[in-house]
């Protein structure tokens, strides 16, 4: 079964309240499962746990007239900022600072993320966040890694994520979700656990993308965004526990999310969902959401958002979605007094005059 079909199946099962069993582990033999458990225990001994918490990044960022832009952060330890050395280095703080710079307004950041959270915990986080700020302008969610490592049923995880997005959309908030990172990129993992972690992560990320778009949000692929950089400079991109990003790693993830947050808030006047146009030159287009989701998981920084084709929201293979390779700022990584570009080239801003089809 291809990843697009698996993503559709997981999302459909989530919508009807079913289950698929321990993140797909049922396909493994008992012998294989025993090997995976042994490798996982070895990896846990290698990966340290030197952090007691994360810096509190909730607060006001930037200056400007008028009411502040309200940003709500939800999710797990990555959304909370575990591994950052101070509050200004978290993903939420970097996004808030970017919004303030572009909008010319102050930004009020409310971080309701919880270290160790799974997708099932989003229900409580949403209620907590909305109690603190009833009408956020945008909510950013980072979730999925603990669903994989704790072997949470994927359809259950996806269902709770979709419910969180729908609840937030009901308040009028835009929602941007950073999907499950590729855990196969974590250096301490050995084969065959590394290969299976990559498959489970990408399958969950694709299913998350389908559910998020169906609920009216935007999904951004985190994927193995830190993988290549980690292998070249592990002490720079990852914190000392070899699992959570370092401040440089958080900057890289935030750089992938920020363009989608800016677009969701329409700070550049491009028009919200439906008003944007894909670029043929960048391999963007409109097509079935499951196909777009499968393409996105292989290309970190790719956004998948709801779209229309010929005035219709749905086609014969499900919801139409737009796939966009958002421009990401270059993040220099200091290396012995020099700066190395690990963010990839900044792509041109060419915009096509009509939607491209993806298949």
Textual characterization of the structure:
- With 359 residues, this protein is α/β, with parallel strands linked by helices.
- The protein has one domain (3-268, 289-302): SGNH hydrolase (Rossmann fold), CATH 3.40.50.
- It is built from twelve helices and twelve strands.
- The strands form two sheets. Strands 1, 2, 3, 4, 5, 6, 7, 8, 9 and 10 form a ten-stranded mixed beta sheet that branches. It has a two-stranded antiparallel ribbon with strand order 11-12.
- Strand 5 (174-178), helix 8 and strand 6 form a beta-alpha-beta unit.
- The two termini are 17 Å apart.
- 52% of the residues are buried.
- Mean pLDDT is 78; it is low at 20-33 and 329-355.
Runs in which pLDDT lies below 50 for 5 or more consecutive residues are 20-33, 329-355
Relevant CATH superfamily: SGNH hydrolase
Strand content: 15-25%
CATH fold label? Rossmann fold
Radius of gyration: 19 Å
Describe the sheet with the most strands.
10 strands, mixed
Distance between the termini: 17 Å
Shape: globular
Kindly name the structural category.
alpha/beta
Give the number of DSSP strands.
Answer: 12
How helical, in percent, are the residues?
Answer: 25-40%
* Mean pLDDT score: 78
Give the count of structural domains: 1
CATH C-level class: Alpha Beta
What pattern of helices and strands is seen along the backbone?
HHEEHHEHEHHEHEHHHEHEEEEE
Count every helix, treating DSSP H or I runs of 4 or more residues as helices: 12
Q: What CATH architecture would you give? A: 3-Layer(aba) Sandwich
